[in-house]
TrEMBL record, chains A, B:
<dbReference type="InterPro" id="IPR001761">
    <property type="entry name" value="Peripla_BP/Lac1_sug-bd_dom"/>
</dbReference>
<dbReference type="InterPro" id="IPR010982">
    <property type="entry name" value="Lambda_DNA-bd_dom_sf"/>
</dbReference>
<keyword id="KW-0238">DNA-binding</keyword>
<keyword id="KW-0805">Transcription regulation</keyword>
<dbReference type="Pfam" id="PF00532">
    <property type="entry name" value="Peripla_BP_1"/>
</dbReference>
<feature type="domain" description="HTH lacI-type">
    <location>
        <begin position="4"/>
        <end position="58"/>
    </location>
</feature>
<protein>
    <submittedName>
        <fullName>LacI family transcriptional regulator</fullName>
    </submittedName>
</protein>
<dbReference type="InterPro" id="IPR000843">
    <property type="entry name" value="HTH_LacI"/>
</dbReference>
<keyword id="KW-0804">Transcription</keyword>
<dbReference type="InterPro" id="IPR028082">
    <property type="entry name" value="Peripla_BP_I"/>
</dbReference>
<dbReference type="Pfam" id="PF00356">
    <property type="entry name" value="LacI"/>
</dbReference>
<keyword id="KW-0678">Repressor</keyword>
Length: 326, 326
């Protein structure tokens, strides 16, 4: 398809390319009649000023790469949508990169984003052994992930979230509480939830039950791990799940096996994305402040793009959504 | 932040810029030693060849704009993820544009995408009165939306989906069947579902009950419309919902008001996104072939970008997911 340039616009409007350029840049004297002729030629030919050329010239693309595992997972979906909205309000575009938990794909995206001169990256993946973010001179903000020096990490207050959830289960009488957590070999802010769980179990003299369900596993494997664990440990009467999907899997399994939630087993999730609660208004969960996480990550990234130093680890407050599963 | 160019690479490697250029383009004779020096300088300085300059020169950006209402809605989320995956496999990048059902935002995105010289657009919004797609010389594929001439529309076989759902409700004994549909004033392929519903009601001599719930409404308003309707029409014993969210809202309302699903009222949804079924494995629904829709839309768009004519209206086959709500 042939793209239209200012030459074609000038021809159509029967003026010089210099005149078209003056109209575009609003520079010099142009009569209203000429301006109208040029503008109607532009709309007739569907000419749009080339922002790519401008980006190349200014060495600023107003483009941000988002590398997340998946825009389908409700927490990430809402985060991506909020970030995209906030960036669009600031004149930035978003290149969407779903790593699908594939480290090769993640590295390829990182290279692609650099070749396309993005101004910065927001990353929220959970893959191990990706050193490519380290020491980068590109502004990067990580969400729920510790990427080492030079990278700002934004997360919720995971310790407080763990404490809130587990204390609620204890208050409601649970004695055998299972903590379903992510892969403990990855350094993630969410690991603090399990620290809170362990501290509370110790404080109340309760036995710990911990099941690791790596975030990167396919849903079917997560389901199998949880079902096997609950089958083998029928004494479990409380569950603190790593996210609302894991909580939903547990609830569905329990109810299919004639255990009532919350009468027999109490279950609390994590994340509290709007979409999840729309479909599952019963669920009790710890709500991450997704809007604040998005806003903080966006602001910090734009600050870094503008040359400000941002090295903080930011922890944002969680809250309890009291449904009917605890 | 200063971006590194081939001049800096040449300086670091102690060679000329022409040599760096020859290494980059794999042209002319270069000793292995020089090649190594240049490559280690590139990786030390984090230099990445500028794909923006190449795009500008070749008048081909390998960028596609996706304009959808929201990357959070499970059907659209899965579609966006599948499309992004398929495009990335073909070397295309994706600019994500969530219109959030705001026509001004949609028009602004369309202008932004054109200024950024995207090669094509895939659009799946439901706003009325957006004429800006008409007669465009830019390759465009619409999903579930009729954008008029020059635009390829990809959708599921909505008539067959409606027939499958309503016939199932009739077979299971429903007599007062409610069709919850979208805004009838927008020309959408999904309108065929209601045509199928009406034809079957006529065939079996049953009264029609139709509730319009525009897709663009906030979830709370959708909820209020459905709850009021069910409250005012307690005889309803079967519901064919426009999507799985509307089905979930109805089920939750019915159960909170002491009607059993499926004993008292049978409910069937539409879409069947993987994420929805993970969280709601009980739900009976009509599954759209999201993977096929994504693949068809992507293929047709790339064909159009490559200058092939594509004017078809494509209808892809649906299937029944038999859960426990019918």
């Amino acid at each position: 398809m042939k793209k239209v340039g200012i030459r074609e616009v000038a021809q159509e409007a029967e003026v010089s390319t210099a005149t078209v350029s003056r109209v575009l840049n609003n520079r010099g004297y142009i009569s209203q009649e000429t301006r109208n002729k040029v503008q109607s030629a532009m709309s007739k030919l569907e000419y749009y000023p080339n922002d790519l050329a401008r980006a190349l010239y200014k060495k600023r693309t107003y483009t941000v790469g988002l590398i997340f595992p998946s825009n389908v997972h409700p927490f990430q979906a809402e985060l991506i949508q909020d970030i995209e909205y906030l960036l669009s309000q600031q004149g930035y575009k978003v290149l969407l990169c779903n790593s699908l938990n594939n480290p090769q794909k993640e590295i390829a995206y990182l290279t692609m984003l650099r070749k396309n001169q993005v101004d910065g990256i927001i990353v929220g993946t959970h893959n191990k052994h990706i050193g490519d973010y380290n020491g980068s001179n590109l502004p990067i903000v990580a969400i729920d992930r510790d990427l080492g020096k030079n990278t700002t990490t934004v997360a919720c207050d995971n310790y407080a979230g763990g404490e809130l959830a587990v204390q609620l289960l204890i208050n409601r009488g649970c004695k055998q509480i299972l903590d379903i957590r992510g892969d403990s070999s990855i350094k993630l802010p969410a690991n603090d939830r399990t620290v809170a769980y362990q501290n509370l179990m110790k404080k109340y003299g309760l036995k710990t039950y911990i099941l690791e369900v790596p975030f990167v596993l396919p849903a079917e494997e997560k389901k199998a791990l949880i079902e096997t664990y609950l089958h083998d440990n029928p004494e479990i009467d409380g569950i603190f799940a790593g996210d609302d999907l894991l909580a939903s899997i547990a609830i569905f399994y329990l109810e299919a096996h004639h255990k009532k939630v919350p009468t027999d087993v109490k279950v609390i999730g994590f994340d509290g994305a709007k979409q999840t609660l729309l479909y599952n208004p019963r669920l009790t969960t710890i709500r991450q402040p997704i809007d604040q996480i998005a806003e903080t990550a966006t602001t910090k990234l734009i600050n870094k793009i503008n040359g400000k130093k941002e090295k903080d680890q930011l922890k944002l407050p969680v809250s309890l959504v009291l449904g009917h599963t605890v």
